[in-house]
Amino acid sequence: ERLRGRVVGLYFTASWCGPCRRFTPKLVQLYEAAAAARAPDGLELVLVSWDEIGDERREYARQAGMRWLALPHSREARALADELTLRYDVTSIPALVVVEVSAD
């Protein structure tokens, strides 16, 4: 509901990915700057993790300061992550895909 009618960044990443660990701090800075500016539409991000173990994803997000939404670590969320990966042709990480979420 929170994302309807918004532009959203889907951030594909994993705790074991070196390039992701270098890019994530830059994305955290951008996210925090947008939040501080209190833009009316803000910047919404969703973490789409390629981690197989939920604890690794949670610890990576915590350590990196990712304060945005994340797909939960569940069978259903894994299926959604796989679907998003295919839909947006994500073949490597890190990847940031910007989409507009329908208001319907």
Gyration radius, in Å: 13 Å
Straight-line N-to-C gap? 10 Å
How are the strands of the biggest sheet laid out side by side? 3-2-1-4
Count of helical segments?
3
Number of strands: 4
Outline the biggest β-sheet: 4 strands, mixed
Write the H/E string, N to C. Answer: EHEHEHE
Share in β-strands: 15-25%
Shape: globular
> What is the name of the CATH architecture?
3-Layer(aba) Sandwich
Helix content: 40-55%
The fold-level CATH name is Glutaredoxin
Instruction: Give me the CATH superfamily.
Output: Glutaredoxin
Query: In terms of per-residue confidence, which ranges show pLDDT below 50 for 5 or more consecutive residues?
Result: none
Q: Mean of the pLDDT scores?
A: 87
GO molecular function: protein-disulfide reductase [NAD(P)H] activity
Protein name: protein-disulfide reductase
InterPro entries: Nucleoredoxin-like, Thioredoxin-like_fold, Thioredoxin-like_sf, Thioredoxin_domain
Domain Thioredoxin: 1-104
